[in-house]
Amino acid sequence: MSSHQDNNHPAKITKAVFPVGGLGTRFLPATKSMPKELMPIIDKPLIQYAVEEALAVGIETLIFVTSASKHAIFDHFDPMPSLKMRFEQQGRMDLVEKVNILSPDIKTVYIPQGEPLGLGHAVLQAQSLIGVNEMFTVLLADDFIEAPQNPLLALIECARVTGQTTLSVEQVPAERISSYGIVSPKQWHQGTAEIDAIVEKPHKDEAPSDFGVIGRYVLPARIFEVLKATPADGKGEIQLTDAIKTLLQQEGVHAVQLDGQRFDCGHHEGFVMANLHVAMKDPQLRTKISNYLNDQG
């Protein structure tokens, strides 16, 4: 790995950006009044899973790039002391734990995106909160990940060693390649590789590999200047993949293979499968679901 900083003094990564300003049109009418990131996997919203993943690796500042209509995300993470007090008075400590999502020392910032003009545009909105020599992580709540080890750990470790952009990737089926940014890895070593190309949504016959970028990134603050110079695509959106492609001409970019299972909850199939996956871990739900499916023949 080529290094951009002193390996003996790796920077601590303490900030996470959550782009949550999208319209969620695939899930209309549910998302007409409810952000898609608050859609639950059984009883916990997608955004909370992503936030807990970030907190578990030492993230201290949560930056939500949101839209004016998504105040419900703010409400979800609000401590609501009156609700907590009511449950405490009732002796319902199990419910206190469920509503006590963030500890007081975690900082939350909400930045309006204005218009949903692409992932790159969303990330750019966080620039004023990131130091010029700082690295930060980006999590897309649509990607629900179940893994033996927190998927951010390997990403952050690689980024701290190299000081460079690090992407989470997984092998995607041929029929889905055109839905992803696809990387061309050089030499894999223990699940990590420097890449020499990234292509946004190629045709499967023109893709450099079958490794698609998924919703976990560690980025250097240098990405902001690149994003500012990145032209909008045909839909008028600024794509993070295009900015990474430009950055790749200047310095190394690394890919880390996901060691786990990902469900794309931005689509109906992935959302339903994620709910089933979690439900089947509960013995009572598993029995009821199995019985129901057996009855359906």
Brief digest:
With 297 residues, this protein is an alpha/beta fold. Helix content is 31%, strand content 24%.
Number of domains: 2
Distance between the termini: 54 Å
Level-2 CATH architecture of the largest domain: Alpha-Beta Complex
Main sheet characteristics: 5 strands, mixed, barrel
Trace the largest sheet across and list its strands.
8-11-9-10-12
Q: What structural class do helix, strand and pairing data support?
A: alpha/beta
Number of strands: 13
Identify the quaternary structure here: single chain
Strand content: 15-25%
What is the molecular shape?
globular
Low-confidence stretches: 1-10
**CATH structural class of the largest domain:** Alpha Beta
Rg calc: 20 Å
Notes on the structure:
The chain is α/β, with parallel strands linked by helices. It has 2 domains: 15-260, Spore Coat Polysaccharide Biosynthesis Protein SpsA, Chain A (Alpha-Beta Complex); 267-297, no CATH class. It has helices spanning 46-55, 71-77, 81-89, 93-99, 119-124, 151-162, 223-228, 240-248, 268-279, 283-295; strands spanning 15-19, 40-41, 44-45, 61-66, 107-112, 135-139, 143-146, 165-171, 181-185, 192-200, 211-220, 253-257, 261-264. The strands form 3 sheets. Strands 8-11-9-10-12 form a 5-stranded mixed beta barrel. A hairpin with a 2-residue loop joins strand 2 (40-41) and strand 3. Helix 3 (81-89) runs antiparallel to helix 4.
